[in-house]
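Per reviewer request, we include the raw input and output of the structure prediction for the construct analysed in the revised manuscript.
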Amino acid sequence: MTDSSEIKGIGNETFRAPKDFSEIDFSELEPFGEKNLARGKDYNIRLPVQIENTKFNLVLGITVTPGNDGKIHFCEMDISLFDQSLSLPGKDDFFDATIYGTITFDFTGPSGAVETNTVITRNPMAKGAENLPTGIGVEVYQKMLDFISKQTEVFKKDIMHKVQHSQRLGLTPDKWNKIFVPILTERGYTDKGKNRSGDQEWTKLYKHNPENASSH
C-alpha cells in the first residue's frame, strides 16, 4: 500500500523520487478511499514517474458528484501523463497531456450495478510525446482495466464496464480492433455488436464478492 506521505496534491512541490511507471497500480493510491475523498469533492494526486529513460508527471484527477440523498451518484478519474518540464498542471490542462484517459462511474443505473465507461487517447503534439515508447497507451489502458476490476470491493457493488469504439477519437475500426480486441478477449469481455450510435460495443460485468470486502 502506498504511504499517504508519498501522495502530494496540486500545489505541493515536494515529491518523492520517480517510480517506474510499469510498477504503478492506480488502486494502491486509493483515489476513492475515505482518506482521499475527505480531501474534497475534486482533487488531484500527482506522482513523478519514469518511462524508460524519461521522467513524466502522472496526475490522477478525481471528481466526485453526490446526489441530494448524500450518496455518491457519479465519480470520475482522469489519468494524464505530462512532460516533467511543464509547470504543475491542473485538472483542466489535459490537452497538454501526452496520454489522457478517463474512467467514469455511474451509480444511478437501473440494474443496480455501477456503470463504467472509459476513454483513452494519445496526443502526438504534446510536449514530451516523442519520448513515449510505442505501446505506452496500451499499458495505461491495461492499468485502467485493472483499476476497474478492483473497485468492486471499494464500492461494494458489481461494476458493468461498457467499451465502445468511437471513430471520433481517431482510430479506424481495423486499427482499434487490432489494438483492443485481443485485450478485451483475453479479459473475458463480450462482443455486443453495434449500439444505437453505430459504435462497436464490448461489455463485462465485474462481480463484487462480499467475502473479499475491504475496509474502505
